[in-house]
Design goal:
Elements (H helix, E strand, L loop, with lengths): L3 E4 L5 H19 L8 H13 L3 E8 L2 E9 L4 E4 L3 E2 L8 H15 L4 E7 L3 H9 L3 E10 L11 E4 L5 H12 L4 H10 L3 E5 L2 E6 L8 E3 L2 H9 L9 E4 L3 H9 L3 E12 L7 E3 L5
Parallel strand pairs: 4-6
Antiparallel strand pairs: 1-2, 2-3, 3-4, 3-5, 6-13, 7-12, 7-13, 8-9, 9-10, 10-11, 11-14
Helix pairs in contact: 1-2
The structure holds coenzyme A (COA).
Coenzyme A binds next to helix 1, strand 5, helix 3, strand 6 and helix 4.
Length: about 280
């Protein structure tokens, strides 16, 4: 099969969105898991957003003038994030996935990104093998948790919408925990009204860009994270990602009726430091 990878343009979102839905749905069905994206529209909307975003590098793979897959590199922060990658089920296992991965890794090299990361669905042996062979290391596992929102008041922990004036404090907190800030994503979340901060004794001790799969949270302690989780009205599907190394928080989620959707692995190339503090990654990192 003759495959070429090119930069995506706006009009590609319809076919790339359909393929993204089909690729993930086929994979989930094969393993007896629920679908990551319940409908074509649920997969296509994020694909359209990713293609149109000025700080996300989008590529598609074509064969015989037909789109057969897509991949993305989120360049909003110090660390670049890959995904979602998908290849048309009819064209899988013929190296298009490898070419789409090589294209974004090459882009990251050209942009001199200090680190590149992704979260890989653990039940998919093929992507695990592919990413590892491309040089990515597994750093940890994360359970996507979903269910009825916990909605419990936590006296002493005040959660409120984040405002622009909070940005510097939140960036400093993220740098303390991860060694780098995620200011591009946080700025967007503040502007869209999705970001929240938690305050303890009048001081910001945590923030979230939204509790859910596509957003991240950083906090000083697990109780700060719990307050942010308890203040959210919707965890979405497949839910927010909890580090399995954080047994205390994972058990608390289970004790409060949340269920595991699936487990993912964080894989990285380049800059990485063990986080020091409480956090929930996004599907990117
Ligand atoms: C992941 C995906 C993009 C890969 O695309 P693809 O075109 O099928 O992949 P390729 O043919 O380029 O590469 C498959 C690789 O997996 C390897 N592989 C296949 N089965 C494997 C297994 N059980 N264990 C280890 N490696 C395996 C192949 O040898 C090949 O690696 P190589 O190129 O180093 O030899 C595609 O399967 C897909 O769309 N999946 C559904 C969506 C998805 O899972 N996205 C990723 C979420 S993390």
């Amino acid at each position: 099969m003759d495959v070429r990878v090119r930069e995506a343009v706006h009009g590609d979102w319809v076919e790339a969105g359909r393929i993204c839905y089909e690729a993930f749905a086929t994979l989930a069905d094969r393993h007896g898991f629920p679908h990551d994206f319940p409908t074509v529209a649920a997969a296509s909307e994020p694909i359209r957003w990713l293609i149109d975003h000025p700080r996300i590098h989008a590529v598609v793979a074509e064969s015989d003038g037909r789109i057969i897959g897509s991949n993305f590199l989120d360049e909003r922060g110090t660390i670049s994030a890959i995904g979602p990658i998908s290849v048309d089920p009819a064209a899988q296992d013929m190296r298009a996935g490898r070419m789409l991965m090589e294209a974004v890794l090459e882009r990251a090299r050209q942009q001199r990104a200090p680190g590149v990361r992704l979260l890989q669905i653990a039940y998919h042996n093929r992507s695990l093998g592919l990413y590892a062979r491309l040089g990515m290391d597994v750093r940890g596992s994360f359970a996507a948790m979903h269910g009825e929102p916990i909605r419990r008041a936590m006296p002493g922990y005040a959660v409120r919408p984040a405002v622009t004036a909070d940005q510097a404090v939140c960036d400093a907190l993220c740098t303390r925990v991860h060694g780098h800030s995620r200011s591009g994503e946080l700025r967007e979340a503040i502007e869209s009204g999705d970001a929240r901060v938690v305050e303890r004794l009048g001081r910001i001790t945590g923030y979230t860009t939204r509790i859910g799969y596509f957003a991240h949270s950083v906090a000083e302690t697990n109780d700060d994270l719990r307050a942010l989780i308890c203040a959210s009205d919707d965890y979405g599907t497949p839910g927010f990602l909890v580090p399995l190394a954080n047994g205390d928080l994972f058990r608390w989620c289970l004790a409060n009726g949340l269920r595991v959707f699936f487990v993912t692995n964080m894989m990285t190339i380049g800059l990485y430091q063990q986080p020091e503090g409480a956090y929930l990654p996004s599907v990117g990192y």
